[in-house]
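U., I forgot to send this yesterday:
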Amino acid sequence: MLDRLYSLAPEEFTAARNALVKELTRTGDRQAASELKALRKPTVIAWSLNQVARTHGQQVEELLGAGGRVRQAQEAGEPRALREASGEEQEVLHRLSGLALKEMSSAGHPPNETARTKLLSTLRAAARDDNVAEQLRRGRLSAEARFVGFPTDLDVAVGGIRQAEAPQPQARRAGSARAVQAARWARDRTESAARARTAADEAEGGAREAEEHLAALRIDADEAARRLEELEGDSP
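Result:
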């Protein structure tokens, strides 16, 4: 049921969801109806990535795997491993964003640079955040995610080491220590920013859901008024 719902075009989502909610309510499954009613309509960006996840799941797994290796390299403060993992991640990022842009175009949403930026940001967030990763893996993203932090979280530290000319063992140890410190700093700041962004997204999603709920209530009110008119017309 949910797979079919998230495969629909964004403009079809709300009506289909509300119809399912009414059906579940009619059959007495109020808990499922409540959970379904809370689902947000996907943005065009999220919808395009959901379709890519369904048709190119292996490439999505490649992205998430590369993202995991990036995080491991950050934790260990290993510049060489970080460069390799980041390169793999970037390659898959651009491949998947290209596929998503084609989905958008085929659905009548001409892609532009803003869309490309949002796609890359969402894919990078999926590579670093387990919650976003799971939503992408299942093809159930509802909105684009924002990646906040360094381009690869450790690029600054890696760049500093990369510029060193034949470092001596002592300098190499000092550089490695600085890289570890930079990784910890970057990780802490990225996680704090991600939490703040999540809170903002939830507040925005709550307002959007309230609007959709109000629209559904209006539909129900119109239907009730119509039935009342019919009953009054049938009265002697």
